[in-house]
Amino acid sequence: MSTHEHDRSPHDRGPRDRGPRDLSPHSRAATFTCVRCGLTLNEAAPDGARRDHCPSCLHSRHLTDHVDGGPSDCGGRMVPISVAVPRGGDWRVIHRCVRCDELTSTPIRGDDNQLVLMRLAVRPLAQPPFPLEAFGDL
Ligand SMILES: [Zn+2]
Ligand SMILES: [Zn+2]
After folding, report:
1. What's the pTM value of the predicted model, to 2 decimals?
2. Which of 19, 33, 46, 74 keeps 20 to 30 A from 97, CA to CA?
3. Which helix (H) or strand (E) holds 32?
4. Distance in angstroms (rounded) separating the CA atoms of residues 73 and 21
5. Dist. CA 81–CA 52, nearest whole Å
6. Are 81 and 71 in contact (CB under 8 A)?
7. Domain ranges of the chain
8. What is the whole-number distance in angstroms between the Cα of residue 41 and the centre of ligand 1?
């Protein structure tokens, strides 16, 4: 049994690895786990806004009652089904709850997966309900 601790750890990296910031309730970052891809996500998005959907797969969870404004006890998975662009506004993701079918729209965040966003945006054009050739004759 040998004790050569002092030549292995010049810096004290013991169990007391807590910064003083932990004591402040304001810096306590809440996290949640994505219901689809299992990523652990910080509730605070890089732009300072509160994140409500996964930036990787854009799925969300039905935790807010968007009709009454309070918390929802549904907890169902919310699937991104489309994007909407209000006049003069930023893109919003339309989610639908797989349990109760409630529709919500939330603003996209700076680190949202752009490929998934584009896929949602072009989906109606990729599957038109009528032949697009008619527009070629105009
Ligand atoms: Zn995800
Ligand atoms: Zn729901």
Report:
1. 0.72
2. 46
3. strand 31-33
4. 33
5. 15
6. no
7. 29-126
8. 9
